[in-house]
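Database export, one record per block. Field names are fixed; values are copied verbatim from the stored entry.
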Amino acid sequence: MTIPVYRLNDSHLDLLKRHFDELADDDVRLRFGSLLNRDARHAYVDSISFERDAVFGVYSDELTLLGVIHLACFKGTAELGISVLSPYRGHGIGTALFNRAATHARNLQIVELFMNCLTQNGTIMHMARKAGMRIVVEHSGVDAYMELPPGNPMTFGQELLEQQFAQFDWTLKANADYLRQVIR
């Protein structure tokens, strides 16, 4: 089953803030490397440059974000930050987000992806290993690196189809949500 991964933009700031507010304290610490308070998490969301970076999300049927990945782009390299709400882990959402971000990075001609996490973040280390990332452990932190081949017509087409599929999925969910509200 394919999980629709939707590219978000600056009109989704409130939705992103709600997603990070729904993370448990330990999940916030694992996602950000420290226990950021609500204001700091909101400031992080407000600081995202949607012109430079890419943010992708997976929606629930109620149009909340179950998982989010931030692809922070630099010259030739990009850093990934990922979070999936606890009840939805183990269902492929993180992998779908990672793959979507990696395809987008390739299409931007980014040659290296990297992630930083705490050594206690076994989920991210498992995902990094599964993706073939090179892992370097230092003190309480882990760095994972992956070289990317350049984008090609196939990856550009894949990204276009994935976004259209995600848009269709969102439209169906929005219509169903609207009908639920009307019927109540």
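Remark 1: Strands lie at 6-8, 54-59, 65-74, 77-84, 112-118, 134-138, 141-147.
Remark 2: Residues 3 and 96 are 6 Å apart (CA to CA).
End of record.
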